[in-house]
Amino acid sequence: MTENSDDRFGPGTYLSPEEAKEFHKIFMSSFIGFTTVALIAHILVWFWRPWF
To answer: Are 8 and 2 in contact (CB under 8 A)?
Structure first.
């Protein structure tokens, strides 16, 4: 059995630490953007037709 000397995270992943940080940054910014749009959409629908 040979041991890999690269900095990959665990088995089954193919990202280096730098790639993982970049992916996380993009993922978080898109998640925050989606959540913001969904929140604004819910507020607008609430003003249009309140459901309570």
So the answer is: no
Tokens at 42, concatenated: 């819910």
To the nearest 10°, report the CA torsion of 26, 30, 36, 40. Answer: 160
5 burial (CB, 10 Å; 0-12 / 13-18 / 19+) is: exposed
Q: Indicate the domain borders of the chain.
A: 17-52
Specify the pLDDT at position 6: 61
Rounded distance between C-alpha atoms, residue 39 and residue 1, angstroms: 52
Averages of pLDDT over runs of 10 residues in the chain (52 residues) are 57 83 97 98 97 84
Q: What is the pTM of this model?
A: 0.70
